[in-house]
Write the structure tokens for this entry.
Amino acid sequence: MAYFANGTEGGIFQDSECSDCVHADDCAVWDVHFLFNYDQLKNDDLKTCLDMLIEDREKGVAICKMKYPMAGGTDE
């Protein structure tokens, strides 16, 4: 999972990844990460599951795997 150390990091991710997604206003992926962000540090199974939704930063830039850009968005 893209672990967010604080609200600023999470906000930066939301601004860059979520703003042009059709799910931006009601995103289950973001809700799950918001709820379990800190818990994944002590639970490897939870971390593995969350990694399936938002790629771990150690592999590169954090990317939401469920992103679906709005028509006319910048992503393909």
